[in-house]
Amino acid sequence: MSILRHLPSFHVRPSVRLEKPIITTNKIFNSPSAPLNKYRFHPVSLRLIRSTHELVYDPVTSLRSHGPCFSADFESGNLGQVFKIGPRTYEIHLLPDPTRQYSALWYFFKVTNLTPGEYIFHIVGFFRDEHQHDIGVLPTAYSENQAARNGLGWFRIGQKLNFWRAKNSPTNSNFSMNSNSGTEFALSFHFSVEETDTMYFSYLYPYTYSEMMFHLNRLRRPFNYSILCSSSGGVDVPVLLWDAEVQRCVNINACTIKPVRTAMRSSSNYIKKKPLIIIASRLHPGESNSSFAMEGFMNRLFSHHSESVRLRKHFSFLLLPMVNPDGVICGYYRPTIHGDDANRVWKKPDKILHPIAYSFIKLLDILTQTKPPIFILDFHGHTAQCNAFTYGVDNPHVFMNNSQKLFPKIMSELCPIFDEPASISFKPNDFPTTMRVALHHRYKIPFAYTLEMSFGALSIGPDKNTQITPSQYRQVGQAVSDSLAVLLLDSLPTQSFVKNYIPIIPD
């Protein structure tokens, strides 16, 4: 058996991945819903079911393959070695994330020359068994034939689903960047092809860096983005700063206010402007649903809707649509290109290892001198729970934090897939290095949330017992914008917060 001992260079080089960008903007809107069906899983020994073991794809070495041709050397792609182990049956391995602790969950690959017939895919290398496959959450796929003929976008695919502990699979010890092997799991499913086709397969609906830039470039004036910094991989990191004082997005390079460094300050010795709302997404690359939600939020916020106009009049916004672009581009599930969790570095980010978090905090140190930060939310995806819900920070020492349960209540009224009972608040010192908690403490932000969205399943609302679609993720983002208007314009005395806010003394 051939063993992959080194990761391909494009797996750690975003610039190489971006030479083959992936944009599904015009295709993904027509993504149908699919029902949930419960499955009973059983263990499988791949060694026993292999009638052959032919290596048909290797990300490091070029191979000639007769029949279906696998590839993933494009933006956000993830595919390790592929073996043909029987007629139309393939053992497909994941590339691990570049981290000391083995993590692999995201896959995204292309298969050309799929001839008519039934296929079986065994995808091997998942690092944990937290999932919703047992209740019927399926992989996603895109068919070039279906797109051309029926205008179909990404859809859920698979029958005879099975998920098991893959005891006989190669472990991550085969990879030079991962020395600690761990238990791996495998997913198998059947699907049929009626005519020769080219198809893409992914863990969840993909949303790439190029996709994000496409949408940002389509925003009409005055909703323009600027560049926060370069990522570790040399990628531009866009940020949008809506300034309520001038009613337009401003370039962050124009933010030249010098941080006040005197220790003797009161809430009256600096000029206060309209409060600041902070929204971020895609800290974890494999949580592509967070980007759909961010897109929905921006579309709503920058629309002519009356509540959106009111929000923009009374609040400034700082939006960071993709916190970890290197990981997204390179096809990781969780870490940055340096192997760090991008949601565990916010208490004291390193300028070299964590340039995005470092630059974002430096920008906030300036902005919060005159724009009191009142609300922060980062979008995430959740592998094990259904619906959408929030994690909050319960901190009685922060002004107005006793009202922090209002936001999930309002969300549940405006968003049919939001689950208020599943929304919980943690103690102030729980998860101290996450974006939500670290910035809550640093700037005394009263409303601080992580909004989690299921990777697949709905158990509430009019569409319960179905699998979530991209449009529903966008609706979550839209509901966040609408809920902000209800929370901050109709429910709370935000002027009291502005009056009592004292900015931090930056480092």
From TrEMBL:
GO MF annotations, alphabetized: metallocarboxypeptidase activity; zinc ion binding
Q: What is this protein called?
A: Clan MC, family M14, Zinc carboxypeptidase-like metallopeptidase
Q: Where is the active site?
A: E452 (proton donor/acceptor)
InterPro entries linked to this entry:
Cytosolic_carboxypeptidase, Peptidase_M14
Which residue ranges does the record assign to the Peptidase M14 domain? 205-488
Family designation: Belongs to the peptidase M14 family.
Task: Tell me the SUPFAM superfamilies matching this sequence.
Answer: Zn-dependent exopeptidases (SSF53187)
Tell me the organism's taxonomic lineage: Eukaryota, Metamonada, Parabasalia, Tritrichomonadida, Tritrichomonadidae
Its GO biological process annotations read: proteolysis
Cofactors, names only: Zn(2+)
